[in-house]
């Protein structure tokens, strides 16, 4: 099977559970407000033309559309995009939806390109970052990522305990499945680090990269968690902006 077909099939299947995981689509008012404040601070003033790459069920797209931006949501998975469309409809928000690969974005030009939790699953993140620069030659880049414990055995063990406790309570705690080891091996940023993101952004021709830890979002998320989940820790989140 083609590499991208395999990725697409994974996310088409994951669309059934993706939004039920609190980490993916937070519903706590405080946490949502922390995300909104961060996006409002980092995006150009509305109405800007914003491209959301690997938009999934639309967490960032919907936040930006609520702030008055003209959002184009690009994703490989029709299943994930169908969820995005239904969320947008439910709120009466207009979002342009494009099914396709992140390394072939619509031509734009865009005032900003953003992504959350996509770079780790690209076989050629540098190629995608270069394509985004071409689509936003004068624009801004926002890369939202997190250290989800893949490379750190202690964080991974604690995450496993947290997932087990959640499942015992009947909660959905993660994806419907894991990527196969052969698939993970083909992804240069599978164990994503802030340094690797900054280096990839610079190599792709984006000027002036800034790295920030997203402490407000982490804090709001921790406060919203049950005490047991809080004790087990939560992933370090960061954003790299450029342009
Ligand atoms: C972890 S989800 C993140 C979704 C969303 N950005 C969010 O923050 O909730 C990764 C998304 O990237 C999409 N994706 C994976 N590889 C892609 C590619 N090569 N081109 C476009 N989208 C891709 C998947 O379909 C999935 O919706």
Write up this protein.
This protein is α/β, with parallel strands linked by helices and 243 residues long. The protein has a single domain (3-242), classed as Vaccinia Virus protein VP39 (Rossmann fold), CATH 3.40.50.150. It has 10 helices and 7 strands. The chain has helices at 3-14, 29-42, 59-66, 78-91, 125-135, 153-168, 181-185, 194-203, 215-224, 227-231, and strands at residues 49-53, 70-75, 95-99, 112-116, 140-147, 210-213, 236-242. Strands 3-2-1-4-5-7-6 form a 7-stranded mixed beta sheet, sandwiched between helices. Helix 4 (78-91) links the parallel strand 2 (70-75) and strand 3. 36% of the residues are buried. The mean pLDDT is 91. Residues 7, 11, 24, 54-57, 59-60, 75-77, 80, 101-102, 116-118, 121-122 line the site of S-adenosylmethionine.
Keywords, separated by commas or semicolons:
10 helices, binds S-adenosylmethionine, Rossmann fold, alpha/beta, 7-stranded mixed beta sheet
């Amino acid at each position: 099977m083609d590499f991208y077909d395999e990725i697409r099939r994974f996310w088409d299947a994951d669309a059934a559970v993706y939004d039920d995981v609190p980490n993916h689509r937070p519903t706590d008012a405080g946490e949502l407000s922390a995300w909104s404040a961060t996006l409002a601070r980092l995006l150009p003033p509305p109405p800007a033309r914003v491209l959301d790459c690997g938009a999934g069920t639309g967490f960032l797209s919907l936040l930006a559309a609520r702030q008055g931006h003209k959002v184009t949501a690009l994703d490989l998975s029709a299943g994930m995009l169908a969820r995005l469309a239904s969320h947008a409809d439910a709120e009466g928000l207009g979002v342009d939806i494009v099914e396709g690969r992140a390394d072939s974005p619509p031509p734009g030009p865009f005032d900003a390109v953003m992504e959350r939790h996509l770079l780790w699953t690209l076989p050629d993140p540098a190629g995608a970052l270069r394509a985004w620069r071409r689509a936003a030659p004068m624009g801004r880049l926002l890369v939202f990522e997190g250290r989800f414990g893949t490379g750190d055995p202690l964080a991974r063990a604690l995450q496993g305990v947290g997932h087990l406790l959640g499942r015992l309570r009947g909660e959905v705690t993660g994806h419907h499945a894991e990527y196969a080891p052969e698939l993970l091996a083909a992804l240069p940023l599978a164990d994503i680090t802030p340094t690797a993101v900054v280096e990839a952004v610079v190599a792709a021709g984006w000027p002036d990269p800034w790295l920030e830890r997203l402490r407000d979002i982490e804090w709001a998320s921790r406060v919203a968690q049950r005490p047991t989940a809080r004790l087990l820790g939560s992933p370090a989140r960061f954003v790299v902006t450029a342009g």
